[in-house]
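subagent[fold] <- orchestrator: predict structure for attached chain, return tokens only, no commentary.
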Amino acid sequence: MDHFADRLRAAPQSRLQRSAAAAALELARELARWAQELETPGAEPRVMPDAGMFAAADQVSVAAHDLAVVLRSEDEVAEAVRLVEEAQKKAGI
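subagent[fold] -> orchestrator:
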């Protein structure tokens, strides 16, 4: 996750506009939703707002760190890593 966030921070604006920022926001929202479901099952998860393409890296970082705190198994960690790798491929960075 840190590698992906660093790549986003270093990406040119044109890359962020094409696909990287959207893929990052999608990932951040998914990780945040997952963390909220683990923390408060049954509660309606809040949606991470779109804070703009230049905030996407920080949103991924925050959501991933929040999720890491509440993951309960190695399988969940593996799934989180898979989601990050998939988003990085989708972002093209």
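orchestrator: received. Logging for downstream: The chain is about 75% helix and 0% strand. The longest helix spans residues 13-39.
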